[in-house]
Structure formats: C-alpha cells, structure tokens
Polyprenyl synthetase family protein (Trebonia kvetii), 668 residues
Amino acid sequence: MPAGVAVARDLVGPATEAAINRLTPRVRRVAAYHYGLADAQGNPVRVGSGKALRPALALLSARAAGVAPERGVSAAVAVELVHNFSLLHDDIMDGDTERRHRPTAWTVFGVGAAILAGDAMLALANDLLLEDTAPGGLWAARCLSTAVQRLIAGQGEDLAFEERGDVTLAECIEMAGDKTAALMACACTIGAVHVGAAPELAMGLAEFGGHVGLAFQLTDDLLGIWGAPEVTGKPVRADLRARKKSLPVVAALTSGAPEAPELRALLAREDDLSEDELLQAADLIVAAGGKAWAEKEADDRLAAAAASLDGIGIPADVRAEFIAIAEFITARQW
Amino acid sequence: MPAGVAVARDLVGPATEAAINRLTPRVRRVAAYHYGLADAQGNPVRVGSGKALRPALALLSARAAGVAPERGVSAAVAVELVHNFSLLHDDIMDGDTERRHRPTAWTVFGVGAAILAGDAMLALANDLLLEDTAPGGLWAARCLSTAVQRLIAGQGEDLAFEERGDVTLAECIEMAGDKTAALMACACTIGAVHVGAAPELAMGLAEFGGHVGLAFQLTDDLLGIWGAPEVTGKPVRADLRARKKSLPVVAALTSGAPEAPELRALLAREDDLSEDELLQAADLIVAAGGKAWAEKEADDRLAAAAASLDGIGIPADVRAEFIAIAEFITARQW
C-alpha cells in the first residue's frame, strides 16, 4: 500500500469520526456502523472501513497546491462522506446485503434509517466545506456538488441499463465516468481548489483523476469476473452471477466477434447459471476480446493520467505519490 | 390565499421547472412526477403541486432586505427543492402511499428511483445557491445546509418516537422545531441572506420563521385529528388511525388529566380502532386539554412571530404580507 494511504488514514480518520459525531444519535449510529466504527448495537469497533483512497488523493491534492496535507483534511473528509453516502444508498437500490464482509446498513437498521443516514452524510459533507474558512470553500463545495450530480446521474444510468439489452460501450464508459470517475476527479482536485489553487493546476489534477477513475472502474470490473474471492471479498465471478453489464461484458457483447451471440444468450437466461456456465461466460468474454480490451483501456487511461500531471508544476514527490496510488488501485490481481 | 403566494407561483414555478430539467432523465421523470409537472409516463400535466408557501416566504425575505422579489428566486427554488426532497424520502420511510391526492413517487417508480431523485433534488438545491453570484451565496448555502441537518434530525426523532411510549412534550416540540420550523425559518431568511442582508435582519426573520413553523405544525396536527377530509385530503382523524404522536396527543397524554390513562390504553392497542373508538380518542384528547393547549400554543407562537418582525426595519407592506401568510397557514379549519 502506498505511503500516502496510511498517512491519509492517520490524518483523516479522527476528523471523519469527529464529523460523524456531529450527527443526531439515530443517524449517527447508522453512519458509524457503515464506516466500521461501531457494531449494530453501537459499541465501538475497528473493522475494515474501506481503503481511504479518495482521502489520500484529496490530501495529495492540497500538497500539489503547495500547502501542508493537514489543510486538505476537511475536503478529504467531505469527499469520503459523499462516497459513503452513495454506497449506503446504492446498497438499498441494488438490494446488496453485504459490504466489506459485513451486513449492509439497511439490512441491520432498516431502509428508512439507512436513507436518512445517507442524506445526513451528504448534507454533512457540504457543511464541512462551507464552514471551513479556506479561500476556496465555495469553489470546493461547487466541485463536490458537481461530482454528486454526476454520481447520481451515473447510478440512474446504471439502474436503467439493467432493464436494457442494447447498451453500447460508449454509454457504458459514460456511465462509469459519471458513477466512478467524477468523484475520483473531485478527490484529486478538491484539496487544491479548497486552498485557492490556479485553474490550470485544478484542471490538470481533475483530468488525472478522471483517467484514474476510469482505469479503476475497468480494474474493478475485471476483478468482478476474474478476481479471486480473497482479493474481492465476493464470490468468484460475482458480477457474472448478477448479470452485471460491466465494461468487459459490454465490450464483448458489442465486439461483433462470433462468440458474442452465445454470450448474450447465456447472460439473458432467467434462471441461475451453474459454475460451469459462469466459467463458460467468462471464457466467451475472453474469446470475444472483452478482457483484452478492458486491460488495454485501463493501461491507456493510466498512461493518460500520468501525462495529465506533466507541466502543471506540482512537486516531484507529490507527482510520484499520485502515480503510486493510481498504480495501486489498478493493479492486476487476476 | 394571500397575494404573495400567487406571485411566488408565477415567479418560482418556471424557475423550478428549469431546475428540474437540469436533472438526468431517469431522475427528472421522478422529480417532475412528484412536483405534479408530469404523469407517471412523463406526459406534461398540471396538478396541485403544493402551496408554494416556502417560496413565497423566501421571496418576501428578499424584499425584506430591500431588493426585488426576482432576486430571491433561486433561493426560493432551493428551499422548495429541499422541502420536496424531504417529502420524497419521508414517504418511503413512513410507507405513505398517497400525497396530494396522487400515488407517492416510490409506489410508482420504485424505492430506488425515489431515493435517487430525492438525492438529486437535495444536491440541486445546493448547486443553485452556490452557482448564483449573489453576494451571500455561501451564507445562503450554509443557512440551507443547517436547515437540512435539522430536518434530518427531526425525521430521525420522529421515527424513534414511534417506538417509544414515553415521549415528553418538550421532546415533541423540539422534534417539530427540527422537522418543520427549521426549514420555515430558513425560507424566511434565505432570500435576505442571499443578497447580503445585515445579521440583525436575518436573525429577526429567522425568529419569525421559527415561530410560524411551530404554529404551522400545531395547526397541521390539529387538522390531522379534527380537520375535515375536504380540507386535509386525508381520511378524518387520519393521525389517530396511524397512532401518530402529534403535539395535541402528547400534550393530552402528559397532561396528568384523569383521561390520560384511558387515551394511552386506546392508542396502545395493536389492532385497528373503530370509527367510534377514534371519535372517543379525539374526545379524550379534548377532555385532557390537549386540543386547547395546542390551540393556545399556536396563538402564542403567532403572536411571538409578529413581535419578531418589530424593530428590524422591514417595509410595512412586506411585514403585512409575512403576517398574512402566517395567518393563512395557521387558519383554524376545524
């Protein structure tokens, strides 16, 4: 794990806890559970609460603007709150019952309490940016607000895709851009924007984050089919079981390859697929070029991300840490 | 209906529609349906979309600061978006199937789509304030953000009260202050804050709105028990059917009157109450003084609201319109 991620956990962890403690009790217990800070009864625990990648990127973003990482903390907490707001609500919408090896919040506290806790986390993220006296507080809030709108648009597209058989690869990439890359781009920019960085710097960092976000989604999609359960925390080929229209799947379906119709027929089946059939579907995606396309696209995005950091005047060590995080979250573990 | 309400509809209606049209299609259709702008298939309609009270108050708030009502439009749209975000999510949490004589959005589009549309409306409200170049954009966003947090806290308390038999009147008043009065206070202030009004003016307006909000909640609770179905759009004694711990009910239960235990036993029954029993419960609330207390408290709050507008230097016609709206929304229709 890159050094920046551990630093982010140390700096952002206590600030996140302080922010959550500002919430009203009924909402706080759901948020604390979701964050892995408390069990279902409200007793303090420490369980895996995500990798703190976005906070790490937000702190780096402050450093990119020439200030100490400490000054990026409230922006980092805000981005992570938005990320977790979306996880909390998405788990309800998608009917997911497990996250980070624990029952999802809505299964523990009910749909109503989970909706409310998500709402509170979104509003709190906003509060943190608006109450901070940093020069770019308003701009940071706008940066986050734009990302939230794209996040919501992306989730809306994702839900709509489930009901459609004709999703194009371009639509799928756009959806990933909204659902995943927009908040990543915000994380890479917001720390700098918050302290009043120049637009050129902010734009370069946003471009970096957008490319990294897409490479991350491609990697996540590849892991969802070919990742080992120890790595993903989910059953093998989980995304195929759920017939998820992930990027490698749509690339294969729309490839024009001779294997595409057979794959389409398999994924369109109403009943559960056997282990053999899931393996067969994964092999058809490989044969139709879906896996190779996704791997190459992830590589290209990573290269484009690195290029985005050229000539925008950020310190060499900050650049190296950005790249290290980008490589870490797109590592091929299959 | 006070003149200010019709003016608000004319000014704020088109701006609200323009704001909703910015949403992504899947989210937009849910928001448009909820607002009464479209039917379930997305065809344009015009049905009752609420009374636009908060927008009317927000426009008056701008006028209180000495500017034209037009300058309060984005703040008015933002407040109304937050109000509707909370209705959309509360309907899911409370399992309500009808609002404004139509099926609630979640029953038409599903829980997931309704959650997402609410999220988008909350984020959009924020966008509108942050992107506006008015001098107090940041402060207006903070004013709204604080109201949102209190709204969420109030809904959390409301949900918690359902599971408790020992709710005090003080807790109940605090809950109403959070759930209803905070956004009303925000509506009465935000137009002035947005154009950079002095703190004394903003505080006087917020105090007015807080009192009006509580008087409104008391009136709504009285209507929920003694209001005619033609007025409320709900079955007679709907709140008693639902065993809602509204202010007159809690006032009666905690009055120490001899009728209180019988009322408590009746409302604690697991099975549905007959029409006769509902009538009996309503009579017990009267006998225990719950109705008289609520009526007096509403009157007192209305008087306190009027007093809040003294000496803060607002034009006489604006003051008169504020009072007219306050009286309109607390009129005794039982």
About this structure: The longest helix of chain A spans residues 199-226.
